[in-house]
UniProtKB/TrEMBL annotation:
GO terms for biological process: acetyl-CoA biosynthetic process from acetate. Residues 123-515 form the AMP-dependent synthetase/ligase domain. This is Acetyl-coenzyme A synthetase. Belongs to the ATP-dependent AMP-binding enzyme family.
Amino acid sequence: QSPMFDPRPAALIGIRYIHFTIQRGQQSDTNQVGLKPGPFTMDSPDVRKCSLSELRHVFPGCSSHEELYKLSINETDLFWGTLARLRLRWNRDFERVSDCNMEKGSFRWFVGGQLNVSVNCVDRHKEKDPSRVALIWEKDEPGQEERVTYGELYTLMNRVSNVLKSHGVRKGDRVAIYMPPCPLAVASMLACARIGAVHSVVFAGFSAEALASRINDAEAKVVITADQGVRGGKLIELKKTVVTAVEKCPSVQAILVAKRTGNPVISSPLDIDLDEAILKESGECEPAVLDSEDLLFMLYTSGSTGNPKGIVHSQAGYLLYASLTHSLVFDCKEGDIFGCVADIGWITGHSYVVYGPLANGVTTLLFESTPTYPNPGRYWETVQRLKINQLYAAPTAIRLLLKYGDEHVEKYDLSSLRTLGSVGEPINVEAWHWYNKVVGKEKCVVVDTWWQTETGGICISPTPSAPGSEILPGMPMRPMYGIWPAILGEKGEELKGNDVTGALCLKKPWPGMARTIYGAHSRFLETYYRPFNGFYFTGDGAVRHSNGYYQITGRMDDVINVTGHRLGTAEVENALVLWHMLNPIEINTDDQLFVPQDQHPSVAESAVVGYPCSDKGEGVYAYVTLKDGFPADTKTESELRGIVRLKIAAYAIPDVIQICPSLPKTRSGKIMRRILRKVAADETDNLGDISTLADPTVVEDLVTRHRTLK
Ligand code: WT7
């Protein structure tokens, strides 16, 4: 007896559905739609079976994209249950497609199912053709790329799995990975997945402080890193950062160090030479059989308050969502070379460098360099040389390259490109047109994709839509299958109809959604499910235009988006105010700054806001008040910048530091950020009501000082 699908709504909307009768250990489907009745570990022999036209074949009652979308919303379990069986290899079939409760923030997908993500990403493609290329490692110096086949990735992954096991890593243990994109980083992620460990990749641009706080929050047992990184012709001291961080991390029992440059670097008693350890281990490792809802990974992201939160994703739902969106949004098929230039330290790298493309058996790019190294033609030269079919990049990079001029693009043959994707922040119309015309020659499908670390995969994007459907510049437009957006007003009411602006929420659970914040489920509930009861609150504002399309207006909370990186203003404020709590470690910044431990803290208070910035999307604007006796000079300013780099990362460094005698506060002592945002944005004629301020004269002074900074 299968309680899985309730046929009523399907019948109501006139859609024929596939009826599965599930018995433990076997599956038979009484469908009329050509799904091969297979063994119960049903493994689609050809993952291309998920283009839009194939989807129509899977759901034969649906002849259009709109009908498929309706089905995905009205018949959620039917939709996802069918695709989960088609697209993934299971060790045990699931009993229930979903068991979700928005009020409790409890989400379970494919309940009772068992599988292994690494088997889905590697083994099944290697079985078919071990010589197919899985990874192209595009190293910093152009023309030195290395290819790794599915067969080689299989062996590498298994060897790393065995190394982890021999260092005591067991199911559920956390492993921190502090590495730029490279085959060993991917193999390490997959190795964790293979043995059921939980990876936490930390962007290799984060400082030792930031790394340590993430390792400690996760209580990671092992850290995997490399001696040095190479980016834009510069060396990055990965190992040194890890050693500094791990001094404050009692949970770490081993540091696995891979060789990237081979230069001598600082050592630690916890070091294990990863390249050597790998050679001692077997290239076979039995995959752990994991439950759908076991943890796959955690990834830290900034929120409006406090420290970054460890967003948790689980096995089956995440993989299904990443792989389906990857094939549908980008029209990516077997044989394609998919080029996502994001770092693996962000969710884009997880879903669209590693898990989505590998689950789909395509060749995926690992881009180690920058958009402008050795010159602003780097992306385009790489596309030509590697014959990349889909390019996925950030608006910041597109805006930057646009400024360098078309000649850097026109030199190269970009005819391999079919889809151009954009992600991370709103893409302005000018940049969109340039991407479409100069890069895509108006022959590519350009997709602005909206999503978040928390959503696991793309949620709003022009595609999938019927081929030839209109695509408008500068907005992600259409919800993905299973995604039901809602716009909510100030009083928490849902704004129905079109031409409405408000808080962007999602009304229905989807398989790729975050399951919790690691170790902080109540914070998870408060952040995402309490603001609007019964909805997932994204933190973003959006417009639903008169044509029904969605456009993102930006964050509604104290999170800002700097060069496509998410940054909590509270984190910067804490770095500025708490700088005296640092250990006396060497502060080695470009400014040659050194702050001894016993130096008095000079900052009394700080308030950080974002302001519109044409290059970076948003810039970081820090208002700072100093304690008595500390001079407001350029030395203080450069020390403050150094401290932010030291405590967070280079991208978080304030663009503007305005030292002022006091901040605008209400009578109850609350800083009025609204005013600070307006001043930073130069909107000083329109400051709104300032009568509730304890001292309204503060504002005039703020504005005057702001003007002198320009
Ligand atoms: C925030 C999520 C999703 C991968 C990269 C960022 C902003 C993301 C878009 C877009 C407008 C966008 C939102 C969102 N954002 N994509 N296409 N248009 N804004 O992931 O670090 O979790 O940041 O990035 O504000 O909430 P993230």
